[in-house]
Specification:
Pathway: Amino-acid biosynthesis; L-arginine biosynthesis; N(2)-acetyl-L-ornithine from L-glutamate: step 4/4. It catalyses: N(2)-acetyl-L-ornithine + 2-oxoglutarate = N-acetyl-L-glutamate 5-semialdehyde + L-glutamate. Its EC number is 2.6.1.11. With 393 residues, this protein is α/β, with parallel strands linked by helices. It folds into 2 domains: 145 residues, Aspartate Aminotransferase, domain 1 (Alpha-Beta Complex); 240 residues, 3-Layer(aba) Sandwich (Aspartate Aminotransferase, domain 2), CATH 3.40.640. The strands form 3 sheets. It has a 7-stranded mixed beta sheet with strand order 4-10-9-8-7-5-6, with helices on both faces. A 4-stranded mixed beta sheet has the order 1-2-3-13. The protein has a 4-stranded antiparallel beta sheet with strand order 11-12-15-14, covered by helices on one side. Strand 1 and strand 2 form a beta hairpin. Helix 4 crosses helix 10, helix 8 runs parallel beside helix 9 and helix 11 runs parallel beside helix 13. The chain binds pyridoxal-5'-phosphate. The site of pyridoxal-5'-phosphate (PLP) has 15 residues, from helix 5. The site of pyridoxal-5'-phosphate has 15 residues, from helix 5.
Length: 393
Amino acid sequence: MTTWQQRYESALMNTFGTPKLLLTRGEGAHVWDADGTEYVDLLGGIAVNALGHAHPAVLEAVTHQLGTLGHVSNFFASEPQLALAERLLTLLGPEVGGRVFFSNSGAEANEAALKLTRRTGRTHLVATEGSFHGRTMGALALTSKAAYREPFEPLPGYVTFVPYGDAAALTAAVTDDTAAVVLEPIQGEAGVRVPPPGYLSAARRACDEHGALLWLDEVQTGIGRTGAWFAHQLPAGEGVTPDVVTLAKGLGGGIPIGATIGLGTAGALLEPGNHGTTFGGNPVACAAALAVLDTIEKDQLLDRATALGKTLRDGLGADPRVTEARGEGLMVGLELAVDAPGVVTAAMAGGYILNATGPSTIRLVPPLVLTDEDARGFVEAWSGILDAVEVDA
Ligand SMILES: *Cc1c(COP(=O)(O)O)cnc(C)c1O
């Protein structure tokens, strides 16, 4: 064991296990470790580094803002915060209108949304099996995985879990007591699970029938990841308008930021005194997010995400050991007939950073600035990586 791993184990809480690499530098979709070894980063800090590492637009925005006005608290407004809120509402549909609450992470964005749903006067929530909404107590209450939940029960209550993608089960679970239905448009941590067509519109109908809010957790799927600004804007979303959207991961391009967006009347549910944050909406984080949105637009990265996703799904899925290649844009899930954690290890030895979400599932959520060359290079290396696992097993 190397010295940095010993230092990690004695100084960091053991919540993640000991990392395999100590990374020291990044540029675009590439990172370098402490030994100077280069990797193509197909995990992107878990769908966070939308513009890759050290993007000049984020660097310039953050540097400029920090040198001008870094933090002021929510006793004061700042121009980046105003501009970002307006920009997000425009991207979600200028005709709908709404209001934004900024925070610092996905879990926090979901906590604010959960509190917002309580302001309907109802407490029942419908969530889905396989869901992931974060690790704080409220977000965890909506997360289905028993291993995450059970050590911390009792969690805030009255949540019904229904099988993901089953419109009939969801519809049956919504009642006049339901405050909200919370869904990921594509489940991320569950291994990039795409629901059948019509699922979101069925959820919208069930909510409308009972006066419940439709809350879409786009923490992972949002900000261009799937080839649309938001996954519910893909054709499969059939034009559905949610009441609440939560964002984080890709929004800040690596600077922590979360956003809870109440569309239409849902934007007025949280009232003075109902919620707060010291850091949320910090000018530096908002400036970073504006730089991310500008760059996605200017460099047409939504189209890039769509095209690169197809290259990866078609190319990687051609190997017979891939039983399914799914997802949208640069949110790619691969179901394998070989051991997925073994594939992650073999890929790392070959200079690629991937992630296994389960024993047979690989998830790729690379930067949207991934080059064609890197995507094709990985497709060419893929069968060799899978061979290495079979030999080792
Ligand atoms: C990652 C994730 C979260 C939690 O975000 P954190 O920033 O880790 O708190 C919530 N919802 C979804 C869908 C996610 O993918």
